[in-house]
Every structure is written in structure tokens, then in C-alpha cells.
Amino acid sequence: MKYVSTRGMSPAVTSAEAIKKGLAPDGGLYFPDEIPVFSDADFDALKDMSYPERAAKIMHAFLSDSFSYDELLCECREAYREESFGPHPAPLSEVGPSLRVLELWHGPTAAFKDMALQIMPRLFVRSVRKTGDGRKALILVATSGDTGKAALEGYKDIDGINIMVFYPENGVSRVQKLQMATQTGNNVFVRSVKGNFDDAQNGVKKIFSDPDTAEKLGNKGIFLSSANSINWGRLVPQVCYYVSAYCDLVKEGDIAFGEKVNVTVPTGNFGDILAGYIAKKMGTPIGKLVCASNSNNVLTDFFETGTYDRKRQFYTTVSPSMDILISSNLERLLFMESDSGTVRGLMKELSENGKYTVPDALLAKINEDFCGIYCGEDDTHAEIRHIETKYGYLIDTHTAVAMYSAEKYGGEEKMIVVSTASPYKFAPAVYYALTGEKTENELDSIDLLEKVSRVEITSPLKGIADRKIVFDPSDSIPPSEMTADVLRYCGL
Ligand SMILES: *Cc1c(COP(=O)(O)O)cnc(C)c1O
Questions:
Q1: How far is the CA of 147 from the centre of ligand 1 (A)?
Q2: What is the pLDDT of residues 327-381, one digit of tens each?
Q3: Nearest alpha carbon to residue 293 among 230, 177, 380
């Protein structure tokens, strides 16, 4: 299997090269030239495996050109160990008669990005070595909150790699700031930057594009890389939990093998739901994939009209991890359903005019598998209350968007709703949804939420205020000093 660019203007590469490079040189995203299909016997074998074994088997089907099964199994066992994720990294909860919730937030940062970011650094380091590169990687991340912490937890103490995370002084929540300020690990660095997220992000982009910095780092045997969600190494681990969830349903006798289930995914960058579609293409009996959006409903409009138009008002919502107007991974879906020439044309339109329209035939093809539904702010709050009252099940704001969309979609089949964050990760909004009361202090809302819901606080968020500060949040720098900060960290 080879990896090709969605824009078709770069040479095909191995999986290790795709993971090391991230973005293809022509600006496209890497995608396998064929999707492996599992037989009934393969699914039957997966059913009786542990999660790390399932993940290794599924990832091996995509990465066997560069990785052995044993290597992947070794890394999966480390990444998804019980101390990090509890007994099952991706368990299903039975919530309603035909409603199942796939809980992806049992990892170290209580959000689903852990599912990919605990394993991706391990794949990355091995990929660098496999491509004969003796250099050390420095990962630079600008974060508006969740990705920074998940990346820090994933990369910490991994040999051959260092990570620096920059967050905007006033652009992250108190809990997010504390999560990053108390980060441990011998290869991590966290810095608060004066300004907003764009300032921090522009600072990082500038460092990436500065040849002078690259040369100085290069002379010390260091190269820069990102933990970006467009990397194939972040996408492929996400395919595993869809296949695994289906196997669990069969194993528990909830469905017979072959029976179709629908899936609803709270969507931002389109990575998570695309992984679900890839699982379907591998042979997992998935029916419809419901793409759930918040008020930033650019994808809902796309599935309805065939026009993707990012020139629209941007809303700051209570489900901030889905506040996105450019869903980068949609490019991979377009590629799967058309060809690199079509993708090239559409992406050119997007960069020049901020929008594109796909041909009718392509839209019809996409709509065989997908459907877009969105949920506004009031409906998000109401849904949290509704699910808690009706089923005694507590959900966060992102999951609420998906739950609302799943109910609106209806359908005869069983529905799996993907739950992407612990309710405690967004405690003020969840507490408000349940009680109608706003809390002054975000940390208080965690304890208050525990009192009203009687659901135990997710362990990574327990006692966060008492942990030792390692990176003082008040020690912030202006964006103009970020380059110097990076060089200083590298001993230059
Ligand atoms: C990142 C994130 C999402 C969106 O996932 P995509 O892969 O970007 O579509 C949804 N919910 C939460 C909590 C997230 O952190």
C-alpha cells in the first residue's frame, strides 16, 4: 500500500514517510491508495481481542509497509494501558432502547483527542527512525485549549522528541490553563503568550516558515514538526474505535453480525467522522453517518446544498472544540468520492473565493453515506437536561450536539452517538444547563456539578487546583519573542 496526495501532484510515499511529513508537498493530505477490507473471519477474530490488540490489527492493515504487527501491538499496549484509559479505552454505554454512546474520554485529558494523541507520537518517532532520519524532532503547538494538553500528555517522556506548547494568555479557560501549567515530563515546555489564539498561532506559523530558525535548529540536529490533526498518524488510530465498538455490540449480543448501525459524530475538523467512514469502507456494517455541527453549521449546509462556504459569521459556542469554519479533513472525503483533479480544483476555489460547489453527482454519492444536522445553543443546553432527566446520563456540550442530531435523524437501526468529552471538562456549561445557574468560578462548577449530578468527577480533573505549577501562567511573553523562546529552549 502506498500513500498518495489528495491533490495528486506529489509522489506517492510509504506510510512512515506520510506520518513523518504530515502534509504532502503539493498542499494535499496523504491517503492510502486503497482501503483494506476485513472479511467476516477477520471481524470474528477481532471480537475476542482486547482493545490494544484490535487497534494493532486494524492499524497494521494500513501501515504494514513500514510497521510490523508486533511493533504496533507493543505501542498500542503502551498507549492504551489501563493506568491511562481504565479497563476499556472506548466503552459503549447503553443509554436508551436503541441508543448507545461510545465514550471516548477515558484518557489522560478527558477528551477524545487522547485516543489519537496517545499513540501518534509513538508512530511518529518510529517513522522518523524508519525513514533513516537521525535528527530530533521539536513539536510546536499553538492551542486554544484542548489540543495543547492532549499533545503534551501524548508526547511527554517520548525519546527523540521535544514539545513546546503556546497558549493565549486570555484565550483558554481556567481549567485548561491549570492543566497545562501543571504539566509534567522531561521533554515538555509550556508558555503563555500575550494576545489571543490567532496571535499565538501566527507566532508558531512564523517560526515554521523562517529559514533562519530552521538553519540554526538544523545545525543542532533538530527539525520542527506539528501535532496537526491532518496527519495520517492521527487519523488511523481513530478508525479503530469504530470497528471495536461494532465488535463489542456483536460480542454482547446486542446485534447480530451484519446488522447495520448508524453513527452520529460531533464534528469540527471532520477527522473523527471521516475515520468512521473509513471503518465503514473496511467492511464495518455502518449505515448512515450523521455529521452533527453546532451553530457553525458550514457542514450542514454543505451536505444539504453541495456548497461549502466559509465566508460566514463565526460563532463562539458552548461546544468550542467544534467552532471551526474550515474542516480540513473534508478534503479526504472529496478525494475518496472523486479524484485528485476534482479535489485540486475545489481547493483552489476555496482558497481564492472562500467557497466551492461540488457537482450534483458527487453530492448525491456523498449523501448516500452522510447526513448533516446542526444544534444551536439553546437546544444544546436543553438536550443536556433532557438526557439527564430521561436517562439519568450526564453528557458534555459536544456530545449534546450529537445526541440532539441523532434524535432528530431518528431511523430504525440502532444509533451509536460518539461522546467526545467528559461532562466535567465543560462543567460550567453543563452545570448551567442542568440548573440554570451561572458559576463565577470555573473550578467551583466542577464540585457543584458533582453535587447535583452525583456522577463522580473524571479522574484527570480531580484536585487540579492542588497540583504543583511547573510553568507559571503569569510568565507570559509577547508573540514577537516566541522565536527567541524556541531557540533558548533548544540551547541556542
Ligand atoms: C476536536 C473535538 C471535536 C471535533 O472532532 P473533529 O475530528 O475535529 O471533527 C469534537 N468534540 C471534542 C470534545 C473535541 O475535542
A1: 10
A2: 999 999 999 999 999 999 999 999 999 999 999 999 999 999 999 999 999 999 9
A3: 380
Angle between helices 397-409 and 427-435 (to 10 degrees): 60
Residue 101, C-alpha cell as written in the block: 454512546
CA of 62 to the centre of ligand 1 (A): 23
Under a CB-based contact definition with an 8 Å cutoff, are residues 420 and 272 in contact? Answer: yes
Q: Which residue has the cell 518517532?
A: 125
Secondary-structure class of domain 88-111+233-461 per CATH: alpha beta
How many other CB atoms are found less than 10 A from the CB of residue 316?
8
For ligand 1, mutation pick of 321, 325, 329, 426 (most atoms within 8 Å of CB): 321
Q: Which residues line ligand 1 (CB under 6 A)?
A: 111-113, 146, 266-272, 321-322, 398, 420-421
d(CA 8, CA 10): 6
In DSSP terms, 188 is beta-bridged to 163
- Name the residue of 147, 298, 322, 375 whose CB sits within 8 Å of the most ligand 1 atoms, as the mutation to test its pocket: 322
Share of the chain above pLDDT 70, in %: 100
Read off the pTM: 0.95
Least confident segment among 3-12, 264-273, 459-468: 459-468
